[in-house]
Amino acid sequence: MASQIVFFVIAVVAAVAMLLRWFGESLSHAKRLKMVPHRIHVNGIRGKSTVTRLIAGMLREADLVTVAKSTGSFAAVIDPDGQDRPLHRPGSPTILEQINVVRDWVTPFVDAIVMECMAINPRYQKVSEDRIIRSTIGVITNVREDHQDVMGETLPEIARSLMSSCPKSGILVTAEQNPELLDIMFAEARRRGTSLIVADPTKVHADEVGAFDYISFEENIAIVLAIAELLNIPRHVAMAGMVKAPADPGVLRIDRYKIAGKNVTWANLFAVNDRESMIAAAGKLRPYAGENTTSVGILNNRTDRQRRALQFADIAVNDLIFDRLVTFGAYEDLVTNILHRNGYAAQNIINLGEQRNPTIEQIIEEAVAKMPTKDVLLVGFVNIHTHQAEMMLEYFEEVAERDMRRRKKHLVAVA
User: Fold this and answer.
1) Buried/exposed code over 306-317 (b: 16+ C-beta within 10 A; e: otherwise)
2) Between β-strands 293-301 and 112-116, what pairing exists: parallel, antiparallel or unpaired?
3) pTM score > 0.90 for this model?
């Protein structure tokens, strides 16, 4: 009996100690947050990482000491000098990572923090906002079809899920233009005592879009300009900061190389996972798809994303225009059957995924060297993480490095 009492007392003491520690850490976190005048929480389906970086660049240009944290294709803290500090995770990522960033980087000298929402589940999005960031300005970049298994089957359901990160008694900025979805967002914002501002992409000038060294989108720029106006930051200062901001590795870049006797234009869209974003990105590629160019789309399908694989097999034919389609990764038979069903010619489908398990040399031979024209537009889209896609990315990194060494050698020889 005595031993049971001792065990009970020890358990109670341990529980109280843990509760006191949690309470103390919560108080410390809350005090750190209160030190920061501007707390910006960036959510949405597409463009979160880029918008996070653009906002941070704009704030730095306005002489505000800013710490940002990007989660997307490259998890990193962007320090007040604009330098990326990669995050090394001992295990799977969790939203508690956001607390650690605040603990490690927020000081009395920090004017602003910009956090990309890393939660997909609406409950965790709400915890991220209400308990961890408590933003003064929230952002929902857009509402697209993705993560339907967690966020809902329809766009209205996804919009409601994303509104879990809406601040209380603050400001929310979005570039979403769908009236039905905006009605949902306005209603939820009013319920939380928050003002919703809809950024207008049509007010972004062509020269502002063209100022970046990667393919930029009017919607992303419009969001940052709307925040600049809220904070009384001049437009020219905001634009200068955005252009200077280090780009996310997942941005759309257009690279040109000489490969296998072909003039290859390479567009890495592996980070694009929804229909609307893919159509918008493909629109940016139209100037590179001339009459004498063979356009080759790479359908990249992960084993754990069967639904997305089947969806993009429809999108590739019904919404996009490619002369050839290459399959990477999993579900090649399923995807090929859907392409056939959509009327896509069998001779224009090239299976180079897990069924064949090709080398990178074989991929280049089939997807580039055998194309009928001298100019080839090669577009990789969806999912990023398959063995074939990773080989492609490594290959083009090596080609880029080789081209750079060649140019430097040429400059030295000329000098």
Assistant:
1) eebbebbbebbb
2) unpaired
3) no
Judge: domain 34-244, CATH 3.40.1190.10.
yes
DSSP result, 15-67: HHHHHHHHHHHHHHHHHHHHT-SEEEEEE-SSSHHHHHHHHHHHHHHTT--EE
DSSP label of 373: S
- Nearest alpha carbon to residue 127 among 97, 90, 154, 152: 97
The Cα–Cα gap between 176 and 220 comes to 10
Q: Are 217 and 20 in contact (CB under 8 A)?
A: no
Query: Nearest 10 degrees: CA dihedral of 32, 36, 38, 42?
Result: -30
**Which fold does the domain 254-410 belong to in CATH?**
Protein-Tyrosine Phosphatase; Chain A (3.90.190)
Task: Residue 175: name the closest of 147, 204, 154 by CA.
Answer: 204
Per-residue confidence in pLDDT tens, the chain, 415 aa: 556 555 554 554 455 444 444 444 667 888 889 999 999 999 999 899 999 999 999 999 999 999 999 986 678 999 999 999 988 877 677 788 899 999 999 999 999 999 999 989 999 999 999 999 999 999 999 999 887 888 998 999 999 999 999 999 999 999 999 999 999 999 999 999 999 999 999 999 999 999 998 889 999 999 999 999 999 999 999 999 999 999 887 788 889 999 999 999 999 988 888 888 899 889 889 889 888 999 999 999 999 889 889 999 999 999 999 999 999 999 999 999 999 999 999 999 999 999 999 999 999 999 999 999 999 999 999 887 899 999 999 999 898 888 666 655 544 444 4
Asked if 52 and 114 count as a contact pair (C-beta separation under 8 A), the reply is yes
Kindly report the backbone phi and psi dihedral angles of residue 102, in degrees, each rounded to the nearest multiple of 5, phi listed first.
-60, -45
Q: What are phi and psi of 46, to 5 degrees?
A: -120, 145
CB 172 within 8 A of CB 197: yes
Residue 264 phi, psi dihedral angles, 5° rounding: -105, 125
Long-range CB contacts (< 8 A, 24+ apart) of 228-237? 228/58, 228/62, 230/137, 230/171, 230/173, 230/197, 231/38, 231/59, 231/62, 233/58, 233/59, 233/62, 237/58, 237/61, 237/62
Amino acid in the structure at residue 154: T
Structure token digits, residue 183: 């009605």
**Domain coordinates of the chain in residue numbers?**
34-244, 254-410
Rounded Cα gap, residues 322 and 3, in angstroms: 75
